[in-house]
Amino acid sequence: MYPPFREGAVRVLLETLRLVKDGDKVELGDIARRARATESVAREVLTSINVEIRNGWISIGQASRIHLALEIARAGQLRDAARALTWQEFEEFAERCLQDAAFRTEKNVQVKGDDRRWQIDVVGTRGQLVLAIDCKHWNTPGSISRFKPAADHQRTATLHLLAMLRERRLGRESERQALPMILTLSEPPAQFVEGAALVSVEKLPNFLSSVTPYDEDLPFLTLPFSVVENPMSQSN
What we know:
The chain has helices at about 5-20, 30-35, 40-50, 60-75, 80-85, 85-100, 150-170, 205-210, 230-235; strands spanning about 25, 55, 55-60, 105-115, 115-125, 130-135, 175-185, 190-195, 195-200, 220, 225. The chain is about 40% helix and about 25% strand. The N and C termini lie far apart (about 50 Å). The protein is of the alpha+beta class. The strands form three sheets. The protein has a six-stranded mixed β-sheet, sandwiched between helices. Strand 8 (about 190-195) and strand 9 form a beta hairpin. It contains nine helices and eleven strands. The protein has two domains: about 5-85, Arc Repressor Mutant, subunit A (Orthogonal Bundle); about 105-235, Trna Endonuclease, Chain: A, domain 1 (3-Layer(aba) Sandwich), CATH 3.40.1350.
């Protein structure tokens, strides 16, 4: 961002994300008016992050929209950025946040177990740590009950993921610590439900930077299928 018009720049980026859907065209003047900025400021902000403007019109694809959302998030409006994305883009956005936190990532991971297939939206690995994330791009309800089926699904899918990882690595994955997670747009009504952690997108970067595979406050899973105890606490 450019310091002389930091707030105006963020508004321009946010209104661009809201107005310019994947493949659509929007006039630069419309973005400037919605952002309460001049066209020259809007043009400068968008060209600074390599958004192409042709004859006063803007069209951006999904990759550019994710880039816009990350820029807005880094400027302190992560929740607004996430709300402007589609649910598919929300998954991509979550994956990019994981990558920024040094996780290796894979999207739409399918695992087999209990005579069916289970899908996990985003899987992130960093050392022994595995995060299995279900991205919920809906407004968080006041009741925890809506999360229970998703949390139960996520916990079971995570257990089968661990089994698959162990098979791929011939048993050397037994020390992996996996956390079933549900990522929400808004602050969830609880931290945990049915053995899964609930994390709002606004808190995701801080969570990713601080989480370790030995956090005794988190419901990690490992093989054999059991909740992991903090090994540091066992020495006390």
